[in-house]
Each structure stands twice: as C-alpha cells, then as structure tokens.
Amino acid sequence: MSIRTTLLGLTAGALIALSPAARAADALCYNCPPQWADWASALKAVEADLGLKMPHDNKNSGQALSQVLAERNNPVADIAYYGITFGIKAKAERVTQAYKPKLFDEIPADLKDPEGHWWTVHQGTLGLFVNKDALKGKPVPACWRDLLKSEYRGLVGYLDPSSAAVGYVGAVAVNQALGGSLDDMKPGLDYLKALTKNDPIVPKQTSYARVVSGEIPILFDYDFNAYRAKYTEKGNFEFVIPCEGTVSFPYVLTLNKGAPKAENAKRIMDYLLSDKGQAIWTNAYLRPARPIELPAEVKARFLPDADYARAKAVDWGKAESVQKAFSDKYLDEVR
Q: pTM to 2 decimals?
C-alpha cells in the first residue's frame, strides 16, 4: 500500500466543501487550528499587519496531508502546517513547491529542506499536560511508567499516532525514553499496549479544551499548550517532562504546489518567520525556528533548563521513514 493510499484513508471525506469564510479568504492554510500553538493570535496579527484574511482550520497533520493529496490536481489550500515528518512526506509526494521566505538562511540546517520545500516555523517539547484538579487528589505523575499504574485508569490521553503528528511524537518519545530507537520501535509499542489496560482516551484532534475542562486529566502534549493553560486558564495545570526523557519536535510550513493564492501565501510565510511573527510564537510558549532568545518574562515561566536537558535529539528524516511501519503495527497490535 502506498503512502498516498494510506493517508487518503485518514479522513472520512477527502473533499470537503469550502465554507463561505474559506471562499472569501485571501489565502487558505490547512491545519491552522485556533486552539493549537496560538494560531488564533498569529492569524489575527496577519490580518492586522498585512490586511490578509486566512481562516482557521481544525485538521491534524495527517488529515491536512490527506486533503492536499486528494486535491493535488485541483489545489485548494495555499499553505499547510505539519509536524516535520508530514512535511517531509508532502515533499516526497510532490505536493509542495520550493519557497525560501525572508530570513530562511537563519533557520538551522537540520530544521529546513535545503530547497525550501518545508521549513520550521516553531518547536515544542513533548511531555505531560496535567489538569491537577481533575486528578482528584492523585499525585501528578513524574514518569512515563507512572501512567501504567492502576490509579490512573481512565485519566490518560494521547492523540492517535497513526494520524496526528503529536501522537507519533509521543510514541517516539516514549520509545526512546524506554530504551528503543528508530530501528527498534518495540518498546514504544509495548508501552502503548500496556497502557490500553488503563483505558486511555485516544482522540484524533487537538484536545487542549478537553484537558482544560478536566475530561482528559493527563495528555501527552507539548509544553506550549500546558504553559498556555497554566498561565491563562482558570484551574491548576502543570507540564511534566517525564523522568525517563523525551524529545523536542519541529512544526513546519509548506507552500502547496499549485497554490491558488501563492503570492499572498508567500507574504504570510515571510511574516510568520519575521521578528514580529516569531515573537508571537514565543509569547505563546513556543521555541522559535530562528536563533532568537525567549523574552525573559516568558523564559521564567518554563521549567528549568535542567529539566529540558532530558529532551533528546531525533533524526526526524529517519523517523519519517519508519512512521508508516510503526503506524501499521500500532493499528494492528494496539488499536
């Protein structure tokens, strides 16, 4: 089965009728959801500073790529936002076009395609986003293995790793933390199998609101979502970098091949990589793509650097190459 065929199966309907807002847009981005990475603020800033309207879109990375593939002969969206492994897939499927935005040269080499088919816009570190109130007196878990304890039955969630980028990153993080490698994903699969005994919640879509409401008390998620909740929502929220270790993960933008409004899209992409655009991400607790220092008041809200030292590097190009095999095994053996 080809990558394309597999991805097309990720959404129930590959071709979705455009909403009135999308038809009136100056550019379209797939997978720019308002509750994820503070895209809401980013797109408000784009409209305010550039006069360009680009509506939100609530897909995940797999669903966005599936849609782009389905529309390859009649492109609809101009930009796609992916976890890096899906950006690499998009280039391989030839649904991207090269574009090097202004300041492209300041992005580190391992965070971009040298031709500009995909490039990092910001990064996050994977860990546990915890609603302490929803734990109802149970301790905040400190380690991945803690989640296998019976006291956390029904309290743990992770996004579907066969579809959502954050779900796959969580699997890679657990696998590496428990002794696996990209050549041996068995520890991660075994962990997720063991976790099924605790009745985990496994959504496909970003689930920030479900953690804030207490529906999912513990979610495999990024630091930027947990910090956003901790400092802007009513309630008791924490971010935990598990004791065994974790990974950091880049999110990338691509200019879709045949983008109907490519010139507007290029202006937006330039803006999101600019000093002002990168500042939007840092204020939302994301680490910038370019080597820009976090503002001191933002940095002070992060866990100490000693905790972040447990976040290890990953060859995301290789991670992409083994992603389909892992997803197939996950669907066969875990879900």
A: 0.85
Q: pLDDT of 198-215, one tens digit each?
A: 999 999 887 899 999 999
Give the pLDDT of residue 177. Answer: 98
d(CA 319, CA 183): 9
Residues 313 and 298 sit within 8 Å (Cβ to Cβ): no
- For residue range 27-83, list pLDDT tens digits in order: 999 999 998 888 999 999 999 999 999 999 999 999 999 999 999 999 999 999 999
CA distances (Å), origin 328, targets 107, 160, 173, 174, 333: 33, 12, 18, 18, 8
Euclidean distance between CA atoms 250 and 158, whole angstroms: 18
**What is the chain's alpha carbon radius of gyration, rounded to the nearest angstrom?**
19
Asked if the domains 3-123+250-303 and 124-248+306-333 are classified in one and the same CATH topology, the answer is yes
50/47 Cα distance (integer angstroms): 5
Q: Distance between CA atoms of 72 and 75, rounded to whole angstroms?
A: 5
CATH superfamily membership of 3-123+250-303: Periplasmic binding protein-like II (3.40.190.10)
Tokens encoding 229: 């909740």
What residues does each domain of the chain span? 3-123+250-303, 124-248+306-333
Residue 318 phi, psi (nearest 5): -70, -40
Question: DSSP class of residue 289?
Answer: S
Distance of CA 112 to the CA centre of its chain: 16
Digit-coded pLDDT (tens) for 83-100? 999 999 999 999 999 999
d(CA 109, CA 78): 24
